[in-house]
Each structure stands twice: as structure tokens, then as C-alpha cells.
Amino acid sequence: MSGSLPLILALDTAQEDCAAALLKGTELIGSRVETVGSRHSEIILPMIRDLLKDSGVEKTDLSLIAFGAGPGSFTGLRVACGVAQGLAWALECMTAPVSSLEAQAEWLRDSERLPAGEVIAVLNDARMHECYGGVWRVPEDPSSRLELLAGPEITAPADAMTFLTRYGAGHLVGSAELVYGGEMALPAALHHAASRSSRPEAIGRIAAMMSAAGEVVSPELAAPVYVRNRVALTMAERARGERLQ
């Protein structure tokens, strides 16, 4: 591996997983993923420490801190962003805020070796009977980032068919199908990859592409992506057991 490639720490606390990955450029060195519910703030720093130790890497060796910027859990997004900012300030390095939806699409492209032109939709459970959605197309150059076609946006589970057909998506990944599958009336020809799992290695790969393109930012400019302004339930909604993500 070339010494000029960035050593990237990628973090993700956007959903119920707490995750970290270490990459040299786009090559994965090691990763950790643990389902923690809402305990991200307790788990993330020890997880980073153990990952670096097991990989034989010092914090001072890091050259870029990437994080899943959302959309996702309001509190979770702030954890990853805050940790990334703190590390980047201390290490005097840059940050890469990466779309959590794009990371799932990138994971699917890589794991399925999808050819150019294939269209990937991501639908994640956004709670409140809604989904976070985005759509990407695989570019001609396999070393380039996916091409954004739509999103991030909010859509209802019942509108999933319209969302997918509008952009000609042939692939679907994300957690929404696990929660709302019976309501989504998905096309029979669609390739499904329903999953709640975090993909920190994909966040790291996208960050490497961002670094090569000069798209990384200083820590003070790093920020989560919030698609929905409403972040609190009414007392009646809480009494019914409803939850915000």
C-alpha cells in the first residue's frame, strides 16, 4: 500500500449499531460493529481504542476521521459527529461527513459487484411510520463515488413503490423493509437486501474518495444531516409507546 494513502478512521452511530472501521485508502484494515441500542456514547471511545490497538495503529497515525452523517438517530448522529470533531481537532486532521444512506448503497455495490448503470435505492426506517430514502446510480468508473439521483428525503412506506419506480431502481437495501415490508408492495423483480447493519467500511471507502477529490472538511464544518425537523413526540404519542429514531 502506498504511504500517500490516507489512514482513515470511520465511525457510525446513526442507527442501533455502534461501529468503527480502520482503512488505508479504500483497503480495510479492521472493523468493529456492535448493536448497542442508545448506548453509543458509552461504547464508541473504548471501541476506537480497541480497534486501533488490535490494528497496531496509534491515534497520531490517523490522517482523516470519517463518520456517518445521517440521516438517522438524532442523538446517535451527534455522538459520531462530536467524536469525529474532537479527534480531528486533537490530531489536526480533516473530517469526512458521509451520508449514511450512501454508505449502504456503496456497501451493496461492492458486495454484489454491481456493474455501471445499476440503480440502488436505500430506504431506512425513520420511525413515526416514515422512511429515509435516497437513490444512487453505479458510475462507469469503479473507483468513483456513486452518482446521487435523489435524496435524502422522507417517504411513507406505502409510497415505496412510487419512490423506486420513479428512478428505475433495480436494487433495494436498508432497514425499512424489515419494519414495513407488508405495506411497501415492492416490485417482484427488485433485488432486496434488507438490513439494519452498520457499514463503517463503506463510510471509510467513500471518505477515501472524498479525500482524493478534495471534498473533506475541517472539523468545525462537520455536521450531521437532519431530514426531519420534528425530533420530539407529544405526551399522547409517548403514552402509546411511539418512538422517534
From TrEMBL:
One function term, GO molecular function aspect: transferase activity
Keyword Heme among record annotations: no
Limits of the Gcp-like domain: 36-162
Pfam families associated with the record: TsaD
Keywords, sorted A to Z: Transferase
GO annotation, cellular component aspect: cytosol
Organism domain of life: Bacteria
Any single biological process term in GO: tRNA threonylcarbamoyladenosine modification
Protein name: tRNA (Adenosine(37)-N6)-threonylcarbamoyltransferase complex dimerization subunit type 1 TsaB
